[in-house]
What we know:
The protein is mainly alpha-helical.
Amino acid sequence: MRQRPTSTWYDQEQRRRRSPFFRQLDRSFQFRVLIAAACSFVLLSAVNRFENCHRSRLAPDCLTSNYLEIISIDNAEAFSIVAAAFVFIFEAGKRREREHHEMLDLLLADRQTCTTNSLGRIRALEDLSAAGIWQDDFDLQRANLEGLHIPFSRWRGANFSGTVLRHADLHGVDLQVADFSDADLSGADLSAADLRGASFLRARLHQADLRGARLTGTDFQDADLSQALSDQPLPPSGAAASGPTMDVLSDTT
């Protein structure tokens, strides 16, 4: 059975920001340089001690002598390179945030220009979902998202009307009140998804996997459910699923 990730990048960043040290590290370039310099000194000192002890065959004072010899003209280049590497590492979170902003800008630009086919949009949706950055009520209507892979993400109230989601991996996705009217979800994996209140009006769900999905109030009116997999009775064409009897899992939200 597929397991929901215990923590996403967004969750980790939220915990990280609760620390005064990491908040200062993110906000101050000077602080990052200072910490990078300290880390570089420690690392180069360890390398220096190893060389001294190796040459002196573990003499009694090899670990404690001449620590300041690392601060020399000969070591200036190595010290600068290592310090720059630490600064680069410390700024990884800020670079990731910029990437997420660029992805959101791409999604908005594709929406405004009514772009149908965009591999960049699919990659952006997958990366944002994997990072735990949900976009409730986002408009993705009439987009070609065939093969989209966003398991265990959350897109409540999102507009997928007329969207192509053939063979998409939507396992365990929270899609409450989402609109899939006229969407093509042939062969899509919707197992264990939360589809309460979602609309699949005239949607194509041929060979879709709905096993373990939560279907209270889900509208399947005029939907094509031929060969769809489900561990619960699905309504016939032209009917809407409603009432607690359609929900095979307990309400945990």
